[in-house]
Every structure is written in structure tokens, then in C-alpha cells.
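Tutorial, part two.
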Amino acid sequence: MTQVRFFDADGRLDRVADAQPGERLLDVAQHHDQPLEGTCEGQMACSTCHVIVQAVTGMPLPPPSEEEDDLLDFAYGAVRESRLACQILLNDDIQAIDIRMPGGSVDASR
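Running the prediction step on this input gives:
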């Protein structure tokens, strides 16, 4: 199980969630009321699930693919630690992960 700590854009802890192995970070975030739209439903065709990975305890995340990296160029407030939540699969090797929502994150579907 992976502990996911969600921080708002100002760096305040917003929510702590437990994720099962194999869950996508996008699904965990949406299930716990985080402001990620995921317009393309995880098909890596947009950047509306952009997050900033602050820290990972355990095995490091694999680097983003070239396609993910290209989409992050369109993400609001992207930084070097930016990732698409739909591309992060959680597993038992990741004990904890700290995620910050970038400024301007909204979920228009809510």
C-alpha cells in the first residue's frame, strides 16, 4: 500500500490517502476530491491531470516518457518535478508519495 499525501498549491497538507498497488495516481486523486480534471480519462491526450511530485519514499518513479514530457510543456505552472497523474502507477515499492497541486488546478466537472 502507498500513502499519498496531497498538498494544495500553497503547500498546505490537504488530504492523506492510502492507495492499492496498481492504482493510477489520477484515480486516487479524483476519489479523494483533488482538483484534477483528467479530461482525456488517462489517455495522455491532455495535461489536465498535471501534478508536482515533491517527494517519493521507496523506489523512485520512472522518468516521464517523451510523450508525457511533451504534454507537460502545455501544463499550467509546469516545473522540473511535474508529472501527469494518469501516468503514475502506484505499487508496493513506493511507500509514500507527496503530491502538490499546481496553482490554477481546477476540475470543471465538479
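The chain has a mean pLDDT of 92. In part three we will examine how such features are distributed along the chain.
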